[in-house]
Amino acid sequence: MEQLTHFINGKRVAGTSGRFSDVYNPATGEVQAQTPLANPAELDAAVAGAAAAQPAWAATNPQRRARVLMKFVALMNRDMDKLAEALSREHGKTLPDAAGDVQRGLEVVEYCIGAPELLKGDYTDSAGPGIDMYSMRQALGVTAGITPFNFPAMIPMWMFAPAIACGNAFILKPSERDPSVPIMLAELLQEAGLPDGILQVVNGDKEAVDAILDHDVIQSIGFVGSTPIAEYIYSRGCANGKRVQCFGGAKNHMIVMPDADMDQVADALVGAGYGAAGERCMAISVAVPVGDETADRLVEKLAPRVEALKVGPYTSGNDVDFGPVVTGAAKENILKLVESGVEAGAKLVVDGRDFNLQGYEDGFFVGAHLFDHVTSDMDIYQKEIFGPVLSVVRAQSYEDALKLAMDHEYGNGTAIYTRDGDTARDFANRVNVGMVGINVPIPVPLAYHTFGGWKKSVFGDLNQHGPDAFKFYTRTKTVTARWPSGIKEGGEFSIPVME
Description:
It is an enzyme of class 1 (oxidoreductase). Keywords: NAD, Oxidoreductase. It comes from Paramylibacter ulvae. The chain is of the alpha/beta class. The protein has two domains: 2-248 and 457-479, Aldehyde Dehydrogenase, Chain A, domain 1; 252-438, Aldehyde Dehydrogenase, Chain A, domain 2 (3-Layer(aba) Sandwich). The protein has 16 helices and 23 strands. Helix 2 runs antiparallel to helix 4, helix 2 packs across helix 7 and helix 10 crosses helix 11.
C-alpha cells in the first residue's frame, strides 16, 4: 500500500500522527493509497517553517517572484499528461477533463505573473504644503487554503498562486480524497525556484482544519466546499480575527426561452449537467424551459442525448463522457436523492439507477438521470445533488423562470438561452446570481476577471482570482510624508487640514 506524505520545507515528509485516510480508485472501489492526517503539532511545524521563510520572500523583488511563476507554468506544461493522469486516478474524471482542471489553474498562475503591475500602489504629489501621500500593498504573512476534492489542481492554484505572487507564504490543506496532485504542484514550484517553506502542503481532516482556523500566525483563509462547512469556517475564522473568504454550494439554473435553438440548448445542457459526473459547483442541475411546448421540445431533444452518454473509467479512452463519482458515500447520497424525486412525483425520463459497468461492479459509477416535472418543493430541486442528475422545472412565463433562480438560496451561477437581446439583458441585470451566462452554459470567468457567487454560495466580500485576489492577499498601507524646507518651531495641536 502506497503511503503518501505531506510537503514541508521543500521536501516530502511522512506523517507522524499515526492517523491515515484511505485514498480510493473510484473506478474500482479499491484503496490505492493512504494519506497521513496531520495533528496540530505537525501543522505548527509547517506554519513555523512558513513564517521563517516568508519575510525574505516578501522582500524579494515582485518581478523575481513572477519569474518563479513563469518557470512553474513551463514545468506544468511539460508535465501536463502526468498531472492529468494522477488526477484522474484519484478523482475519477476523464483525462481531457483532468487536463482542463490543470489548465484552468495554470491560467490563473499566468495572470499572477503580472504581479509587479498589480501590486503597484498610488501616489499623490503635494497633497498639502510639502506633503506627499502614497499607498503600498504589502503581504499579509502566512496564509492558508482549504480546498475540495472536485478540482484538486485548479482551486489550489487559484489560491496559492496569487498568495505567493503577493509575497506571502501559503499553507495548503487539500482534500484527503485526492491529495497527490497538490504535492506534485508543490514539487514543481520547488523546481521552479520557490524557496523552502513558502508553499507547505499539509494533509488532514477536521483536526487540521480547526488547527488552521485557530492558529494565531495564519492571517487569512480561503475555502471552497459545501455551504454548511463554509459557514463554519467563515464564522470561526472571522471570530479569530482572520481575513476569510469561503465559497459554498450551488444550484445553477438554465432558463430556456421559446426562441432558443433547442439542439444548441440540449448539447449545452448535456455537457454542463453531466460533465465530471456533475461534481462541479458550476454544473447546470436545473433546466427551466418557459412554456410547456418549449419543455416538451427540450425533453424530446435531451432524452436520447442523455441515454447515449458513455460512462466509464478514464483508462477507456477520451470518448468517455464522464467517470465515477469520488466515493461510495457520494454514490449512495446521489441515488438516495434520485429515489426521493421519484417518490415525490417527478417523472424520471432517463433512469440510471440500475447502471452497472461490467468489470467495474465495485466502482463508484452512477448512471445519468433526467427528471421532468420537478417542482420547487422537492428535495432534488432544493438540494445540491453533486451528481449526474438534471432536473427540468417547467415555468409558464419568463417572470416565473426568473423567480425560480432568484428565490433559491444558492446564487453561484446561472444561464439563459435566447435569441432576444432585450430578454438576455433584462435577465443579466435583474438576476441575483454572481455569474451569468448568456447562451453560455457554464459561465466561469477567465483568470483576469473574478469568480464568485452570491447568497449562500459565498461568505466574504472578495471573489477568487482576478484583481480581487491581489486585494485579498495584501494589506494597504498609506504613508503621509512631509519634508520641511526649513526648520519648523512649535507643535501643532489642531487637526491638519488642506490650505
